[in-house]
């Protein structure tokens, strides 16, 4: 068996056959486009040309048409019989031949060639690859609304990674004002949003890489950023706000209940649709995409306020469907196909057949046990096209929840493929401050992209090796497994929480909330401390050669710092639970100093990849904790009163 049989490819192709022998790429060879009308293929050919220069340190000229005197090291040949995104690669004694149907397929072939060349250099193995995706749409959604709005350069880097992973759809989740709506400057004047002009640049950058930049703006629930403003408050279902039912939150974290700002539109107020029209007309012209994700998830107040009587008469589901149809009319009038989150309509399965057939349901769920199989079957039976939308499990986690992430992404892919999903969208949220650093999400991006391309061929794909070789160029070959391990500290906690971790909850809770400790014991904190210490030691052994290597190391150290601080906070709360006279004042003083250091580095790291707006809100709970530490220290310093 030839040594090249161990090629690491991600996504792993549908079919890979490696045989004995290798083609040595000649420095005087050419990249030849066999067709007479090569315009569409030029981006892929030029990408290969640049790749050869970067990897092999020589340039191959481009030629159009085959000639006897031209030596084609790489030959591109179109075959319209192939599916649009499919490609084939065959290498032998005459060179490397790429067959494609569309320019997009040729682009994906070059993405595969990139991985092969990085591993083999000039000695290109004799092989045959036949490949095409399971899901036509393979996307990534980045939350830019929970405080953290990435710089344009950061988004470009994410798009580059998406191109390497053969993803073809990007969504930037918008609620509130991370986008500069030109009709509403008062909404974002104190923020640093992404502008329409920047969207144009990003859209063009995506198109060059066969990625569709799909607008994503919530339009029903999650409207707190607008409905808490005086000029829009009257458009809320419950303008004064409401308390979430106890069944919908963790009561130990919110012992006094969970009050919520108004976040859901009044479906019967015609001014709501006029506001949405103006928002859409500010946003949509900057996107060339034919799709538009309007959100419409988690409409908590629907039927509980102004529409209560109507909901009792018609049913909440009917109210929801009616308003969704009105939004769909706005979207259709603007030439877009509507996507919407499917969590509310799935609670009313009898109404699913009444959905317009020209919309796309986005079936989301982020736990390993989410019922993708049952839910997607409901959409399939009703003839409603749908995506499956799992997540990276990075949010509310500090450094990820790896085992849950892997299982969630896998389940969505398996059941999505079985039940006919037309798309697979990897979601990366930023709830409660967006504390996780970007590298925490990379493993989810990579594994999700592999599954989206070919489920059965990538269930056991080597994610750590891809991270080591292609993303971080780690000479120690360690960071991939380290990132996966970093995200599994939550398995040492006392209680499993969906979309959360106990250490993250500790940092977000008030210092005097001792119920949050729950089942956590000193033994739990000892294990967590040892785990974090081991990860910290392993970080110092990494040998990254990637761009921004030192930044990545700092981000990893910051994540471990969050874990370590939360562990010590847990110990402090155990002492408080035993009585204030049991509090170790040295530990409290150390926590104050440590939190100052944590916040200082977190603020510095924030500005490396993200815009300054949102940073104060992101750190608000940590700043509050700092104040509560100081108040406790002051209280303990006072002499006991007789």
From TrEMBL:
CDD domains: GH20_GcnA-like. The keyword Cell inner membrane does not apply. Its EC number is 3.2.1.52. It catalyses: Hydrolysis of terminal non-reducing N-acetyl-D-hexosamine residues in N-acetyl-beta-D-hexosaminides. The active site is at 298 (proton donor). Residues 136-368 form the Glycoside hydrolase family 20 catalytic domain. Residues 8-131 form the Beta-hexosaminidase bacterial type N-terminal domain. This is beta-N-acetylhexosaminidase. It comes from Paenibacillus agri.
């Amino acid at each position: 068996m030839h040594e090249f049989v161990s090629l690491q490819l991600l996504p792993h192709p549908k079919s890979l056959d490696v045989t004995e022998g290798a083609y040595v790429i000649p420095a005087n060879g050419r990249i030849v486009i066999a067709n007479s009308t090569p315009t569409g293929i030029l981006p892929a050919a030029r990408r290969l040309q640049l790749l050869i220069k970067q990897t092999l340190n020589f340039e191959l000229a481009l030629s159009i048409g085959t000639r006897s005197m031209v030596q084609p090291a790489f030959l591109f040949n179109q075959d319209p019989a192939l599916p649009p995104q499919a490609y084939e690669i065959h290498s032998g004694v005459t060179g490397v031949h790429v067959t494609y149907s569309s320019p997009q397929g040729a682009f994906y072939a070059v993405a595969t060639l990139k991985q092969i060349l990085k591993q083999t250099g000039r000695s290109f193995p004799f092989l045959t690859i036949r490949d095409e995706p399971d899901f036509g749409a393979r996307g990534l959604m980045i939350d830019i609304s929970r405080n953290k709005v990435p710089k344009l350069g950061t988004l470009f880097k994410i798009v580059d990674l998406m191109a390497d992973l053969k993803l073809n759809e990007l969504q930037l989740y918008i609620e509130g004002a991370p986008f500069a709506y030109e009709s509403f400057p008062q909404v974002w004047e104190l923020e640093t949003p992404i502008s329409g002009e920047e969207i144009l640049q990003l859209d063009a950058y995506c198109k060059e890489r066969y990625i569709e930049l799909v607008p994503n703006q919530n339009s029903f629930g999650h409207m707190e950023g607008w409905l808490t403003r005086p000029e829009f408050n009257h458009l809320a279902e419950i303008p004064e706000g409401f308390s979430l039912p106890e069944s919908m939150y963790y009561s130990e974290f919110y012992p006094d209940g969970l009050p919520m700002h108004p976040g859901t539109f009044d479906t019967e107020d015609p001014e709501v649709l006029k506001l949405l029209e103006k928002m859409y007309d500010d946003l949509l012209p900057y996107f060339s995409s034919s799709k538009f994700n309007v959100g419409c998830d988690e409409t908590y107040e629907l039927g509980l306020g102004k529409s209560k009587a109507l909901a009792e008469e018609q049913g909440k589901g009917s109210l929801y469907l009616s308003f969704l149809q009105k939004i769909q009319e706005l979207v259709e009038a603007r030439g877009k196909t509507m996507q919407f989150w499917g969590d509310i309509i799935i609670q009313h399965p009898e109404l699913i057949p009444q959905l317009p057939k020209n919309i796309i349901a986005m079936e989301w769920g982020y736990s390993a046990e989410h019922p993708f199989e049952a839910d997607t079957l409901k959409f399939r039976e009703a003839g409603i096209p749908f995506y499956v939308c799992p997540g990276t499990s990075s949010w509310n986690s500090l450094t990820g929840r790896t085992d849950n992430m892997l299982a969630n992404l896998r389940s969505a892919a398996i059941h999505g493929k079985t039940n006919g999903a037309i798309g697979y969208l990897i979601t990366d949220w930023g709830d409660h401050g967006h504390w996780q650093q970007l590298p925490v999400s990379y493993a989810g991006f990579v594994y999700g992209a592999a599954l989206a391309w070919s489920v059965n061929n990538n269930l056991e794909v080597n994610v750590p090796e891809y991270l080591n070789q292609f993303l971080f160029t780690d000479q120690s070959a360690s960071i991939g497994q380290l990132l996966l391990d970093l995200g599994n500290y939550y398995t040492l906690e006392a209680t499993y929480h969906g979309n959360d971790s106990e250490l993250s909850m500790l940092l977000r809770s008030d210092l005097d909330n001792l119920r949050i400790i729950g089942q956590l014991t000193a033994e739990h904190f000892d294990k967590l401390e040892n785990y974090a210490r081991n990860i910290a030691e392993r970080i110092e052994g990494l040998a990254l050669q990637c761009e921004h290597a030192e930044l990545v190391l700092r981000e990893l150290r910051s994540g471990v710092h969050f874990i370590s601080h939360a562990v010590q906070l847990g110990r402090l709360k155990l002492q408080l639970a035993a009585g204030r006279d049991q509090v170790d004042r040295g530990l409290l003083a150390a926590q104050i100093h440590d939190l100052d250091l944590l916040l200082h580095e977190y603020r510095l790291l924030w500005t490396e990849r993200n815009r300054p707006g949102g940073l104060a809100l992101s750190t608000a709970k940590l700043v509050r904790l700092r104040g509560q530490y100081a108040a406790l220290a002051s209280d303990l310093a006072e002499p006991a009163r007789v």
